[in-house]
Amino acid sequence: MQNKTPRLLIMMFLQYFVQGSWNMTMGLVLSTFGLSSIIGTSYALLGLATIISPLFVGMIADRFISSQKIMGALHLINACVLFSIPAFIEAQNGTMFLMLLFVVGILFYPTTALANSISFRHINGVKLFPVIRVFGTFGFMCIGFIMGQMGFSGSTVTYEIAAGSAIVLGLYCFTLPSTPPNAKGKKFSMRDLLCLDALSLFKDRNFSVFMICTVFLMIPKTAYSAYVPVFLKALGYDNAATMMQIGIATEVVFMFVLSFFLMRFGFKKIILCGAIVWIIRSLLFSYSAIDDNVMWIVIALMLQGICWDFFFTSGDIYVDHKAGPHIKAQAQSLRFVISNGVGLMFASSICGYLFNNTVTDKTPEIALTQWHEFWYYPAGVAAVVSVMFFILFKDTDLIFKKKDEVQKGAVAENNAN
Question: Subcellular location, in the record's words (predicted)?
Answer without folding.
Answer: Cell membrane
